[in-house]
Amino acid sequence: MIQKRSMRRSLNLNRLVVFAAVVEAGSLTGAAKRLGLTKTVVSSHLKKLEEELGVTLIGRTTRRMRLTDIGRELHERTQGPLVELMAGAAAARDRARAPRGSVRMTAPIDYGSEILAPLLVRIQKENPGLVIDLVLDDHPLDFITEGIDIAVRVGWVLQDSSHRTVRLGAFKTWVVAPASWAPSAPSIKTPTDLLGRPFIAGSMLKSPARWEFGSADGIQTAQIFDVTMFANTNVAVRAAVESGGGFTILPDFAVRSRLESGSLIRLLDNWSLPSGDIQAIMPAARHQSAVARMLFSSLQTLLRQGAK
User: Fold this and answer.
1) In the chain, which residue ranges form alpha helices assigned H by DSSP?
2) φ, ψ for residue 14 (rounded to 5)?
3) CB neighbours of 19 closer than 8 A, spacing ≥ 6?
4) Distances in Å between the alpha carbon of 208 and those of 174, 224, 230, 264?
């Protein structure tokens, strides 16, 4: 049996780990390779452990090693607790290294719903210590008053900001109509063919009824459409079109999934409309939290992957 004896110093648990490695590897050399230590260091730890316990754990000769009865008992009693201890330490270390904290982010309603929300879910699942507060609003929010860490803005002419600005990408603008228009779609070949048809307009735009088109042949034309309904968000505009209210013009990211599902159809796909930018606005890097920097870096990576 292992004798209890008073020791001036606490037992060094690292030496128990070394001892277990020697037993499992069957040699000092094998334990050294497993632990990433030199054979001399392993031998020193083993010797000091025996001195601390006042017993011989492993009988050593020039040719072989033999576990003593006391050494065998110690290994059997400590093997399970050591495994749990090392697993607990590894978990604590990983938890300390993992990003933790909250990030408050704002974006337009359509871009936030269609693009950001699914990507942020992926980021959060990979970082369980992260809490994301996504605030969707088609009007810019004040960084200080609203406690915003990252703001995503989408538009054709974006205002300058005193904060750090990073371009995330661009978007195209498409003419879309309800699926019920499919039979008459082939007759709509130029923007003028849409005159007199009901147009659903976004009231948040500076000139919601006027749009400039360009053809592949270099023809430029501006049209003012007959608005039958205004709505102050792209989400509402899209819903009105899906309900059969008329046609509209929206960013590609706001309608792509509906075109794929068949609830909307695209018109005039051989004509181009003004494209716009997507930007992220943040405080200077030195004023941004580490967790916010991590989230933004992950978001950039996912957006780049999606753009390929």
Assistant:
1) 13-25, 28-35, 39-53, 69-97, 109-111, 117-126, 143-146, 234-242, 252-261, 290-307
2) -60, -35
3) 45, 46, 49, 57, 58, 71, 74, 75
4) 14, 9, 9, 20
Helix (H) or strand (E) holding 279: strand 276-282
pLDDT in tens, 260-280: 999 999 999 999 999 999 999
Identify the sign of the CA torsion 64, 66, 71, 77. Answer: positive
pLDDT digits (tens, 9 = 90+) for 135-174: 999 888 888 888 899 999 998 766 656 678 888 999 999 9
Going by C-alpha positions, the residue among 259, 262, 226 that lies closest to residue 245 is 226
Please tell me the distance from the alpha carbon of residue 101 to that of residue 139, in angstroms, as a whole number: 26
What is the rounded CA–CA span in Å between residue 221 and residue 230?
A: 23
Does the pLDDT of residue 85 top 60, yes or no? yes
Which residues, in sequence order, are CB contacts of 39 under 8 Å at separation 6+?
28, 29, 32
Q: How many Cβ atoms from other residues are within 10 Å of residue 67's Cβ?
A: 16
Using DSSP's 3-state secondary structure scheme, residue 17 falls into helix
Q: How far apart, in whole angstroms, are the C-alpha atoms of residue 105 and residue 282?
A: 10
State the amino acid at position 62 in one-letter form.
T
**Dihedral, 159, 222, 177, 240 alpha carbons, nearest 10:** 50
3-state secondary structure of 248: strand
Residues in the chain: 308
d(C-alpha 304, C-alpha 301), whole Å: 5
CA-to-CA distance for 159 and 153, rounded, in angstroms? 10
Give 76 or 104, the one with higher predicted confidence. Answer: 104
pTM: predicted TM-score of the whole model, two decimal places: 0.66
In angstroms, the Cα distances linking 215 to 110, 170, 212, 225 are 27, 20, 10, 18
CB of 152 closer than 8 Å to CB of 116:
yes
Domains with residue ranges and CATH for the chain = 13-97 (1.10.10.10), 101-171+277-307 (3.40.190.10), 173-274 (3.40.190.290)
